[in-house]
Amino acid sequence: MKFTIAATALTAFLATSAFANGTPGAGFFNEWDIVGDGQVTVEDVASRRSDIFVSFDADDNGILDAGEYAFFDEARVTSHEGKPKPGGGNRKAAVGMTLAFNDVNGDGSVTLEEFVGQSAAWLALLDLNGDGVVMADDFGPNL
Predict the structure, then answer these.
(1) CA within 20 to 30 Å of 41's CA: 109, 116, 126, 137, which one?
(2) How would you classify residue 15: left for phi > 0, otherwise alpha for psi between -120 and 50, otherwise beta?
(3) Model confidence over 72-105: pLDDT tens digits?
(4) Contact status, residue 14 vs residue 76, Cβ threshold 8 Å
């Protein structure tokens, strides 16, 4: 049941992340701007990444093992099936969700601390102007 909920939540998130109502970044802000102030901070990212992690941690042990991470990967791939190829920003965001990006100690699994700990690095992938937050001007053809 938890996997079904997680897959549904991730699919909904990824389906709206790049564009909503034709506005670049609108879906991203709907999902990641926790405060609703038009900017995504590392605190916003850490909160959302924690929620995502918990959704896929089937045994609630604070670790995404190989099987759980494989399901997480599959859910992300499935969410993009039949859709146009994502823009550069979505590709960067996708890289920041991979096992390779998040397995900081290289043991083949990802702890909650590792996943949330990569929040600033993930945000930096999307922060074109390097000001430490993602705002509307970080979306566009250069992503």
Answers:
(1) 109
(2) alpha
(3) 999 988 876 655 554 555 678 889 999 999 999 9
(4) yes
Domain 2-132 has CATH 1.10.238: yes
CA–CA distance from 21 to each of 6, 12, 49 (Å)? 24, 15, 24
Bridge partners of residue 20, in order along the sequence: 23
Encoded tokens for 75: 């859910």
Q: Are 22 and 11 in contact (CB under 8 A)?
A: no
In the chain, where are the structural domains located? 2-132
What's the CA gap between 86 and 60, in Å, rounded?
A: 31
